[in-house]
Amino acid sequence: MNNTALAAIAVGGGLLSSILSLFPLFPIPLLAPLPLFLIGLGVGLRPMYVAGGVASLFVLLLEGPFPAAEFFIFFALGPSFLIYRALLKRKKSSGEIKWYPSSLLLRDLTTISSTVMLLALAAYIYVIKGWDVTIVVKNFLKAIDPEGQLKDMEPLITQIIPFLPGLFAFWWGLMMLINGALAQGLLVRFKRNLRPSPSFQDLEAPRVFLILLGISFILSLIGVGYLGLLGKNSVLIFAFPFFLIGLSLVHRWFHKTSFATLGLTVFYFVLLVFFWPVVFVILLGILKPWIEKSISSN
């Protein structure tokens, strides 16, 4: 592919990414990183860097510096780092190419998500500082619902607000995962992928993540002030990799049956409707080493 074609793809992809991010209709803005993932995983890193720069510049011209900085940090830098990692490879003495493994990609995604959470937590503390959360919720509801139809939701919103930084970071990590997987799937479908798809069934998490999850859980229960706030939000982040690991186990088990498609469809439906299966999947992810050891010994 010549330089003119690469430049056209980079500029076109950047413009498309910025337009998707500015589109008001849900869920289109969530697909804003998709063109960048498609370019990075299908064409290469340099065109993707150009696309990210073009997209950020376009948002700057249309929306101003703050939205542009937000886009650059969350929609351009994130995919850039993850794609850079995904395209890492080394050649063995046998000539076989060893690609960056999926477990390390999960580690990197969790690490970046924790950084996003800390940035969001700092913004939350800056905005809330000196204010009572209850008053903030009342003012918020008064602004969006002057007729008071949502007044009954005030206690629920008051409980959720301290988790907003963690929820935002969790959503960001999930958005990166979905867009990356969708881009890779499309590229594989049309045979334009630069690397084979990472394996979903062999995921592992560093032991330090389990330790951090435990510390975060304890802080969320007994921590006060900023420590309690940090613990509540960190639980969401460090539970995320174990949730994915638990899902990989569920996929592996269903694929050993004759009703894999039906079983997974029912499982994901239950997962969307109820909360307790999420906790069950996270526990599966945490206990995976012991489960596999027990199965292998039998």
Q: Which spans of ≥5 residues are poorly predicted at pLDDT below 50?
A: none
Helix count equals 12
Distance between the termini: 54 Å
Mean pLDDT: 88
Question: How many separate structural domains?
Answer: 1
> What is the overall shape?
globular
- H/E element sequence: HHHHEEHHHHHHHH
Short description:
By secondary structure, this protein is mainly alpha-helical. The protein contains twelve helices and two strands. It has one domain.
Question: Can you offer a commentary on this structure?
Answer:
- The chain has 298 residues and is mostly helical.
- The protein has one domain.
- Helices cover 76% and strands 2% of the residues.
- It has helices spanning 3-22, 34-42, 45-63, 65-86, 102-128, 133-144, 154-160, 164-189, 207-222, 225-255, 260-273, 276-297; strands at 89-91, 97-99.
- The protein has a two-stranded antiparallel ribbon.
- Helix 2 runs parallel beside helix 4, helix 2 packs across helix 8 and helix 8 runs parallel beside helix 10 (225-255).
- The longest helix has 31 residues, at 225-255.
- The mean pLDDT is 88.
List the helices and strands and how they pair.
Elements: H1 3-22, H2 34-42, H3 45-63, H4 65-86, E1 89-91, E2 97-99, H5 102-128, H6 133-144, H7 154-160, H8 164-189, H9 207-222, H10 225-255, H11 260-273, H12 276-297
Antiparallel strand pairs: 1-2
